[in-house]
Design a protein that fits this description.
2 copies of one chain form a homodimer. Chain A is α+β, with helices and mostly antiparallel strands and 101 residues long. The first copy, chain A, has one domain: Arc Repressor Mutant, subunit A. Chain A is built from 5 helices and 3 strands. A 3-stranded antiparallel β-sheet of chain A has the order 1-3-2. In chain A, a hairpin with a 2-residue loop joins strand 2 and strand 3. In chain A, helix 2 packs across helix 4. In chain A, 34% of the residues are buried. At the A-B interface, helix 1, helix 2 and helix 5 of A face helix 1, helix 2 and helix 5 of B. The first copy, chain A, binds a DNA duplex (30 and 30 nucleotides) through helix 3 and helix 4.
DNA sequence: GCCTTGATTCGATATTCCTAGAATCATGTT
DNA sequence: AACATGATTCTAGGAATATCGAATCAAGGC
């Protein structure tokens, strides 16, 4: 994962699934302290094992940060990394002239 | 593709590949009038048929707009749609309080 | 220690995606 | 019309993903 483009592409891929994008949106909208996996499951109605894979995908790319709290695991968004991702798309837009965006 | 989340997830998926993300970045940085497919191929060094699939993927999600110019086809970024995509991730962040982002 | 609950890991299947050579199409030129 | 060039479509096989029930793990309560 040396190049920036590979790293950010992996993140985009992680968000390239309705369930995972739904998870991220839910977590972004939710409590800054994080949303428990069970609550995510209840809202999105995804089987636990499937959701767990999706959460792992999002966490392993650094978009979500898991935090244990007793038997619960809260997932919160890494806003700094999310910002890097969205900014990446606009970097040096139009050669940096910003005439178009 | 009724729901917003499905539409944007499809776009994220389109960007979830190093070659395609590289294409978008190149086009975003390049001439606002668009970048010919051949030029993209020369820079990214991707076989023509493979690149063509990637371009089709990006265009069919509405991120790139193809425009014929003689025997060339210029691809330019749809900045408005790209903005919608990046904004989507931040919508109603932290319940709209914006305390965290 | 046993039980419950929240969550992950295992395992197996079905599906989708990626790739690129060959063939084809489209446009402009001579 | 024949040709050259830019680009797409056809085709096929291999690789990577998505899914989810069952089994397992982890933490707290009794």
């Amino acid at each position: 994962m040396a190049r920036q483009v590979d790293k950010q592409a992996e993140r985009m891929k992680a968000l390239g699934h309705p369930s995972r994008l739904g998870v991220l949106r839910l977590v972004v909208r939710g409590d800054p302290a994080g949303t428990p996996a069970g609550e995510i499951q209840a809202v999105l109605k995804i089987p636990a094992s499937t959701l767990s894979h999706h959460l792992d995908t999002l966490a392993s790319t650094g978009l979500l940060i898991p935090e244990k709290e007793g038997t619960f695991i809260r997932y919160r968004a890494d806003f700094a990394e999310l910002r890097k991702l969205t900014d990446y798309l606009w970097e040096d837009c139009c050669g940096g002239g910003k005439s178009c965006c």
